[in-house]
Amino acid sequence: MGNYRKYRQAPRKDLVKLTISSLSSQESLQKLAKAGQIIEASASGILIKIKRSDFVSKELKSNLNIDQLLGKSVYFKIHEMNLEIGGVVARTKFLGKDGFMIAIDYTVDAPEYWRECLMDLLPTG
């Protein structure tokens, strides 16, 4: 995944397939993506894979770089858990034909005990 692993704040947890039903901007409430898949999670953030075709705006669909999302406050809904989570886009990575990885840090919006409880509730494979 790159050199960022040495900067991790919390250990990652590999999950069973969990999907997000939307990714939206917290500022404008604009829907950014209609779907995605959660790849990894930790008590500090979640890594989401989004296919290019799942982006709503033409601008995001047509670019190889979505760094314009870095630092943006977003929220998403974990479909299987009916749970909405907000956070800040910390990293993006282009995966070629597979789409993009987006790392969302949710430490600002959620207290530590809540984040630890979420890790206990997320289903593992």
- How many individual helices? 2
Strand and helix order: EEEEHEEEH
Mean pLDDT: 87
By helix and strand content, what is the structural category? mainly beta
Biggest β-sheet strands, sense, barrel: 6 strands, antiparallel, barrel
The overall strand count is 7
Low-confidence stretches: 1-8
Radius of gyration: 14 Å
Give your account of this protein's structure.
Strand 1 and strand 2 (31-33) form a beta hairpin. With 125 residues, this protein is mostly beta strands. The protein has a six-stranded antiparallel barrel with strand order 1-3-4-7-6-5. The protein has helices at residues 58-62, 112-121; strands at 13-25, 31-33, 36-41, 45-50, 73-78, 83-94, 100-105. It is 12% helix and 42% strand. It is globular, with a radius of gyration of 14 Å.
Briefly characterize the structure:
The chain is mainly β and 125 residues long. The chain has helices spanning 58-62, 112-121; strands spanning 13-25, 31-33, 36-41, 45-50, 73-78, 83-94, 100-105. It has two helices and seven strands.
